[in-house]
Amino acid sequence: MTARDEVLNLLISYCRAVDDRETDKLWRLFDADCEFIFVDDAIAHGVDEIRENLGGRIDGAIRHRHILTNSIVEIDGDTATAKSDWYLIKPGAGQAWDIEGAGYYNDELRRSPGGWLFTRREIRPAPR
Prior knowledge:
By secondary structure, the chain is an alpha+beta fold. The chain has helices at residues 3-19, 23-26, 46-60; strands at 30-37, 43-45, 65-76, 79-91, 97-112, 115-125. It has a single domain (3-125), classed as Nuclear Transport Factor 2, Chain: A.
């Protein structure tokens, strides 16, 4: 597996862990000193703050699924950057799914002995 594939797996693992409410898996994706910038500009520093802030948002969210697309990944040795578009869909009436939101992730990552980790994640809404 290439480094790019490993980074893409990390990005996808985040979406799956959030969507499936598997927070025990989610917290393992972040570097201990990670900075997380939320769509509302709230900032969490470190895994404990991320767990508190993101965990509360996950607990209060409706059931949804992420669609992640158009990922641009740049690898530089043991560090990487990624920018991806995301769409958040939720169950609608009947069998349909509705788009709840859209935006992009700006990510900085590092390779650790256990695999790639987020060192910085920024969530931005799609421009209107």
